[in-house]
Amino acid sequence: MRLTDYTDYSLRVLLYLAVQGNALSTIQDISQAYGISRNHLMKVVQQLAERGWVETVRGRNGGLRFVEHIRDLTVGEVVRATESDFALVACMPDQRGEHRPCVISPQCRLRAALQAARDAFLAELDRHTIGEITQPQGALAALLGMNGAIPILPVASAPMPASAPADGGA
């Protein structure tokens, strides 16, 4: 199962804002931190605000911020709200209850196995809250370049150059 970019970006926005706490952020801040398109984030942020998960502040010094009570929101709840289809195969009912008939349905055990796997996947996501997965916040803040911090990126170690003699080589 692969989550859509929309769900991925929704989770990233919530994580970013949770780490920022009560401080206002802009879509541009989040876009730069993750290296993703500002345009892609605009629709995501609008719908997160409509759900009451993000507060938007209009005006010159506006932005958006995390709604504090959402720290207890589970990753599973976010995924369920942002994904449009959990039918892993065509014979499973989609969001509208529609499915494609299959000739082996009366004896098929695959659909039940896939349903159980999907349910286990979502149950695991339900065990983790947005607040929990943002810990430790300091480390995430540094990786996201918050508060003027320079993002910590893995660097391949290179051999140190030989130093020149102190006397200038004489």
Automatic annotation (TrEMBL):
Q: Any keyword DNA-binding?
A: yes
Q: Which UniProt keywords apply?
A: DNA-binding
Q: Does the keyword DNA-binding apply?
A: yes
Which superkingdom, per the lineage? Bacteria
Read off the InterPro entries from this record.
Tscrpt_reg_Rrf2 (IPR000944), WH-like_DNA-bd_sf (IPR036388), WH_DNA-bd_sf (IPR036390)
- Please give the Gene Ontology molecular function terms for this protein: DNA binding; DNA-binding transcription factor activity
* GO cellular-component term (any): cytosol
Q: Which NCBIfam families match?
A: rrf2_super
From the Swiss-Prot or TrEMBL record, give the protein name. Answer: HTH-type transcriptional repressor NsrR
Tell me the name of the encoding gene.
nsrR_1
